[in-house]
Design goal:
It is elongated, with a radius of gyration of 18 Å. 75% of the residues lie in helices and 0% in strands. 4% of the residues are buried. The termini are far apart. The chain is an all-alpha fold. It is built from three helices and no strands.
């Protein structure tokens, strides 16, 4: 059973909750990765590139706005999302054969 931060009375409690959340985040990243794979499948017959700059900008802006909404530092999360996006684009490029020249 999960605890709120205020309900944690020991470091073991805090560590267990952080580990639980880290696992949940990884599960969400794995789900997101499935959509990245599907995007490549959809892009292929449409002859779309992996890197679509307008969409990249939109996702980064969304990350910054969402960070603010949750009281987090937008610059950090925008940079984190930029890394996530770069990794996703590199993966899509491989799937789409863009790296083969």
């Amino acid at each position: 059973m999960s605890k709120t931060p205020a309900e944690c009375t020991t470091m073991a409690d805090v560590r267990a909750e952080i580990d639980r959340l880290d696992r949940a985040l990884m599960m969400l990243f794995a789900e997101r990765w499935g959509y990245i794979n599907r995007a490549a499948e959809i892009k292929r017959p449409l002859r779309l590139k992996a890197d679509i700059p307008a969409r990249v900008a939109e996702v980064k802006e969304n990350a910054g706005r969402t960070a603010i909404e949750f009281g987090l530092e937008p610059d950090f999360y925008t940079r984190l999302w930029a890394q996530l996006i770069d990794h996703s684009i590199a993966h899509e490029r491989k799937l789409l054969g863009e790296d083969e020249a």
